[in-house]
Amino acid sequence: MPYRRAVSEEIRWGVIGPGRIAENVMADFAHVPGARPVAVASRSADRAAAFARRHGLERAHGSYAEILADPDVDVLYVATPHPQHHAVALAGIDAGKALLVEKAFTATTEGAREVVERARDRGVFVMEAMWTRFQPAVVRLRELVADGAIGEVRSVQADLGVARDYDPADRLFAHELGGGALLDVGVYVVSFAQMVLGAPDTVTATGSLFPTGVDAEAALLLGYADGRSATLTSSLRYPTPGQARVFGTAGWIDVLPRFHHPRTIVLHRAGADPEEITLPPLGTGYSHELAEVTECLRAGRTESAVMPLADTLAVQSVLGRAADQLGVRFREDPHVLD
């Protein structure tokens, strides 16, 4: 059944996949009124128990199936490796659990489409955990663009790269775990461009692969029928500033590093001095997406207006087209719940 809860009641959260990102997210629940984390699940009972102790959770489940069956969990934060999102999300939707699914949303475009179709069919809330869209500085950027502060937007530039020592056993480089630059950091630059420009008509990608068959670096050119464009860079092979720029016919906006969770943007208008706008996040920045999900559930919504499922599908399509051009073939993991 779809999630339904009285607006005055708290929203009870469960975590699937107690890894690094889940550890970072947990502290921000303290900044979200009406949200209470209560349970965690791992395929290792010991790992789940340790996570629950560290974060004061009531219950630790030694399998994903157990938390799906937990009647006292309203929404699940899915923080497993990318190829596991698909099966876990489908099972969560079937169990009537609302979902916040880490980016990249799935490993494949078809996997994302299936999750979205199931969520809409069942009337269950699902949102991609793209925290960038909820950062106060990015919210202000979108307001400025919508108000015409830089005229008609024509182009976006964004880069996000880190230098990582190659280790075929590490998740970042493992094909079966959805490793590579595109799904790990490329999703940020693509999502940012899609947020500003919408879905592109053409995708052109170039890059290189690690020996495990995942992409080490990727440069993307997104093209639009009316001549707009986005030039995007992602890498696990070399570091980049992590900056974004939005260009319009009457100026531009710089999103200072690192753009995927910025504190400061700089508005450059033609004929005016640059205007620096600093809007720090609450907590470490995850609080804003947690608040969005919590508020949507209390209001009975099945999608977020800030991070709608149509945008997630558009981003996954770009990632999939780029991966195809680079020769990377990701697969969803159907056995994660076995």
From TrEMBL:
Keywords: Oxidoreductase. The keyword Oxidoreductase applies. InterPro entries: Gfo/Idh/MocA-like_OxRdtase_N (IPR000683), Gfo/Idh/MocA_domain (IPR050984), GFO_IDH_MocA-like_dom (IPR055170), NAD(P)-bd_dom_sf (IPR036291). It comes from the Bacteria. Residues 139-253 form the GFO/IDH/MocA-like oxidoreductase domain. The keyword Oxidoreductase applies. Belongs to the Gfo/Idh/MocA family. This is Oxidoreductase domain protein. The lineage of its organism: Bacteria, Bacillati, Actinomycetota, Actinomycetes, Geodermatophilales.
